[in-house]
Amino acid sequence: MLSLLLKEIRHNPLLWLLAFVPVVFAAEKLAPDAHTLLFVVSVLAIVPLAALLSHATESVAAKTGDAVGGLLNATLGNLTELVIALTALRAGQYMLVKASIAGAIVTNTLFMLGASFLLGGLKHRVQEYSRAGARFQAALLFLATIALLVPSTIAQADRAPGAVTQTLSLGLAVLLIVAYGLGMLFSLKTHREFFGSAEHAEGGESGEAPWPMSLALVTLAGVTVLVALVSEVFVESVQKAAEAFGMTPAFVGFIVVALVGGAAEMASAFSGARKNRLDLSVGIALGSAAQIALFVAPVLVLLSYVLGPTPMSLQFWPGAVVMMLVATLTAALVTNGGRSAWFVGVLLLMVYLIFALTLYLLPPQVS
Amino acid sequence: MLSLLLKEIRHNPLLWLLAFVPVVFAAEKLAPDAHTLLFVVSVLAIVPLAALLSHATESVAAKTGDAVGGLLNATLGNLTELVIALTALRAGQYMLVKASIAGAIVTNTLFMLGASFLLGGLKHRVQEYSRAGARFQAALLFLATIALLVPSTIAQADRAPGAVTQTLSLGLAVLLIVAYGLGMLFSLKTHREFFGSAEHAEGGESGEAPWPMSLALVTLAGVTVLVALVSEVFVESVQKAAEAFGMTPAFVGFIVVALVGGAAEMASAFSGARKNRLDLSVGIALGSAAQIALFVAPVLVLLSYVLGPTPMSLQFWPGAVVMMLVATLTAALVTNGGRSAWFVGVLLLMVYLIFALTLYLLPPQVS
Amino acid sequence: MLSLLLKEIRHNPLLWLLAFVPVVFAAEKLAPDAHTLLFVVSVLAIVPLAALLSHATESVAAKTGDAVGGLLNATLGNLTELVIALTALRAGQYMLVKASIAGAIVTNTLFMLGASFLLGGLKHRVQEYSRAGARFQAALLFLATIALLVPSTIAQADRAPGAVTQTLSLGLAVLLIVAYGLGMLFSLKTHREFFGSAEHAEGGESGEAPWPMSLALVTLAGVTVLVALVSEVFVESVQKAAEAFGMTPAFVGFIVVALVGGAAEMASAFSGARKNRLDLSVGIALGSAAQIALFVAPVLVLLSYVLGPTPMSLQFWPGAVVMMLVATLTAALVTNGGRSAWFVGVLLLMVYLIFALTLYLLPPQVS
Q1: Is the separation of the CB atoms in B109 and B287 below 8 Å?
Q2: Sequence-ordered alpha helix ranges (H) in B206-247
Q3: Does B354 touch chain A (CB under 8 A)?
Q4: What is the 3-state secondary structure (H, E, C) of B58-79?
Q5: How far, in Å, CA of C28 to CA of C38, rounded?
Q6: C362 lies within 8 A of chain B by CB
Q7: How far out from the chain centre does Cα C237 lie?
Q8: Which positions in chain B touch C337 (Cβ < 8 Å)?
Q9: Alpha-carbon distance values, A222 to A76, A219, A226, A262, B346 (Å)
Q10: Interface predicted TM-score (ipTM) of this complex, two decimals
Q11: pLDDT at C87 over 70
Q12: Inter-chain contact A154–B319, Cβ cutoff 8 Å?
């Protein structure tokens, strides 16, 4: 069993970064105040752990059959992001939690999708993909963005007391999870055949044979614990390190955390695009964004009642709402046609660059 | 003639509620301060009157030939909403008038359309409908929402005096009515054949034979008077009853009045969806919303100069504008494809639930 | 050579207005304070100069081959707007510069496109056109509108100092020019065949034989100088004349300057629509709007560092951003189908009328 894991590690250069996991714990013991160093090594350690987690989830899913497997993929697909956000939640860093949620949505819909279109388009003149899957995920994302828009708009009007925003956030979180559940029922059960191709591709694409159940489950459990431990170092060091790099906290949460958390998925999406399997890339990018918006975000709100120092609301700062809205709308318009060429990728990346530039230049207090 | 009316009443269980019409007047005499009771019985009385009004309008339209009939349907189709709003207008309750306009647009595009898709989708796997009609109505709605957006945005900027907002509202009201008139010319006359199927379906769908002209005209006149009288009780009692139920005035105007006023149309739209005639459902839902936005709302602005204590503007509170904008955009995106399954209905209903929850939780002063 | 120019002038009634060019200079000498007179004659002089400039650019483009010619058309196509804006820039009238940029985008996407659809639709029942070109230009426009939205949103939040807005504007200007350049590469070089029909039509449509190179170059240089000289009179007189006509400065910059600067292009677009060549009309309208948003506007920001009294930002007033956003979204939705009838034109013109009415009624300080 261990030999299988070692073979996987030799096979995949990304996993060599696993060497940084012990480095993180050693560095934390030896130099607990070297925030920049801790930040860099924890980032380098999270990337391969996320890749392992993703492979373990897929292996369990492949073994448990279609319906249960689909459900597993749909709930554990963003386990890394969830664990990082939970660590920040327990530390009471709600601004970081929210920035990483909004950032993951924007990064998946603009950067991951745009880079997939660009990389695929540089190799293939025109690429086609299934519209049904893209439309479904875009519709779910649009719904979530509306739900996130409401508490922010109301809080901005400044006439509603905080208690109303909190009750509203709780209600919206429940509505979002229900919508996500019904969406799973629709795409995995009642109207499965409309989404068949994309789902199927995702399963068969990973290139490696699925692990045996026991290895997958042990990896899932063990790596989750490791991600949680490394995340703690990451969350503690990120703010101080950001200052050292001259970045605003908004930029770090929005861009850096989202890129780190999504690195493993991006590798799959880009590889799919190069192989002219855009169905796969679009499915990963929009599916992951929808999952964060409709599952991870509301679950964090619910868990904040148990784990956090105070309940967390769904109220984002106005700029984040505008960015999520624009990102969702752009992705919906772009994927509506089911065709792509390299310039479509450029357009999405340009919108992402505009947002990144804005966040980078914003003075800290705006975040 | 009366026997025909009685046969209709026996045939349609909804019309049994007509028994509540005399109850309203009796209750008002006997217990003028029992606001909650008056509210409930007036709601129960308006629903069957609206159904009668709708049937009478269709009968007159069927007898007067295509062009005049289409025009009649287009102007009198929302007579109930118009009469209720006129009663509130005369009482100077402009907030209730505006909430009921915005609420009717949002309820028709999200709830009526969403429930039609869901009810139809639970029976039929995938349903198709004509895109031409849906696109036309969605375009009209989009135009109206932009017109309603302008005075609210300007007033919010807080630099424009009220007189400017009022002049602007008057100008916009005239533009909207002109656009609505040209839209009728387009869909009923110059490019009639593009919309043929939906219009035709609507005429033949009601299932019952049209009444003779005399009965229809008498019913139209008599029931309009009854609706006006019951509306007065309804408008007087609604605010106090809302407080008793713990609802905000915004919620009552937006959700309750809109559901009461549109009950008859909803019955037709849902029945069409179950019979796999989505053209009919989409036509009723979007057509009714467009009519309220481009005809009822501007007519109320114009009539406020004659009937109201002061002229009424088209300035809505920001939240209402956002909701109308989101509802219109959602309906446009959803109906763009011309296909539907049950989950599309769930998505629309979810957006409606998000809005209803927000309005329910909002503190009163925000409305 | 001169005889060719004279033949062109006799051929084209618009060019008879050239007689007003000397009138402008005479009037400025004789009655430098007659602002209304100077405004009217400078408007009448700019229109034929713009037409000459446009014909000269096309002639040079036709002679220099496809790629270089396309690039020339893409950079000099809005030379008149650029020269007028540069004159206002040098005079430090940044409000007029920005109003004319926003106005040109809105006027091209709503008025020019809408009037083309209406004029074409009154003659031809249903008109079809290529969706590829329209979608490409609409996507570029959408990108530009997002870029323009960002600094305005941030400045409105009022927490960012002016220096941040200025740095951000500079960065966005560079991003927009890069996006425009890559867009040219895409549409003129790597994926040329998707846009072939529209481009081709534009070249062959002008109806007149292209001029010889020498005449075209001399005209290009000479007329540019004349436009610059007349623009100076125009910019100096426009504010005072606006007051005399009872118009707000916002209305003048947004509506009057945009209509004057685009008169020559409108003549071509309308003529194309009447001849059932909507590809041409849509290409001119959306292409011109995209060029102003992605090329003229950022070039003005960059040049303001050299020519203006202080650097100019990309921060527009909120109303202008909303109008550009609505105009872009409307054009994208409307051109998505690739078909048109007269009522589509009415819808676009109605949105334009709503904006014009609002700007006309707005009190001056809002601009």
Answers
A1: no
A2: 213-245
A3: yes
A4: HHHHHHCCHHHHHHHHHHHCCH
A5: 7
A6: yes
A7: 21
A8: 135
A9: 15, 5, 6, 20, 38
A10: 0.87
A11: yes
A12: yes
Q: A133 CB near a chain B CB, below 8 Å?
A: no
Q: How far apart, in Å, do the first and last CA atoms of chain A sit?
A: 47
Q: How many alpha carbons lie under 13 Å from residue C226 in its C-beta half-sphere?
A: 24
Give the three-class secondary structure for C128: strand
Q: Which of B136, B159, B172 sits opposite C354 (nearest CB)?
A: B172
Query: For the segment B253-263, what is each residue's pLDDT rounded down to a tens digit?
Result: 888 888 888 88
- Asked if the Cβ–Cβ distance from C157 to A347 is below 8 Å, we say no
Flag if C346 and B179 touch (Cβ within 8 Å): yes
Mutation target vs C (from A349, A354, A355, A362; most C CBs, 10 A cutoff): A354
Residue with structure tokens 């999708």? A113
Separation of CA A121 from chain center: 24
pLDDT, tens digit (0-9, with 9 covering 90-100), for A78-134: 888 899 999 999 988 888 899 999 999 999 999 999 999 999 999 999 999 888 888
Q: Closest-CA residue in chain B for C331?
A: B139
Residue C301 Cα, gap to closest chain A Cα (Å): 16
B347 shares contact with chain A (CB less than 8 Å): yes
Per-residue pLDDT of chain A (367 residues; tens, 9 = 90+): 678 777 777 777 777 888 899 999 999 999 988 998 999 999 899 888 888 888 888 888 777 766 677 777 767 778 888 999 999 999 888 888 999 999 999 999 999 999 999 999 999 999 998 888 888 888 899 999 999 888 877 666 555 567 888 889 999 999 999 999 999 899 888 888 777 544 444 444 445 567 888 888 888 889 889 989 998 898 888 878 888 888 877 788 888 888 888 888 888 889 889 999 888 889 889 989 999 999 999 999 999 999 988 899 998 888 888 899 999 989 988 887 788 999 999 999 999 999 999 888 876 554 3
Q: Do A363 and C161 touch (CB under 8 A)?
A: yes
Tell me: pLDDT of B205 over 50: no
Count the neighbouring beta carbons within 10 Å of the beta carbon of residue A327.
27
The distance of C335 to chain B (nearest Cα, Å) reads 12
Is C177 exposed, middle or buried, given 0-12, 13-18 or 19+ CB atoms closer than 10 A?
middle
Residue C186 tokens read as: 């895409």
Contact B318, B156 (CB under 8 A): yes
Q: Does A341 touch chain C (CB under 8 A)?
A: yes
Tokens of C358: 């609002």
* Cβ(B57)–Cβ(B79) below 8 Å: yes
Residue type for position C163:
A
> Given an 8 Å threshold on Cβ–Cβ distance, is B346 in contact with A179?
yes
C-alpha neighbours within 13 Å on the C-beta side of residue C310: 6
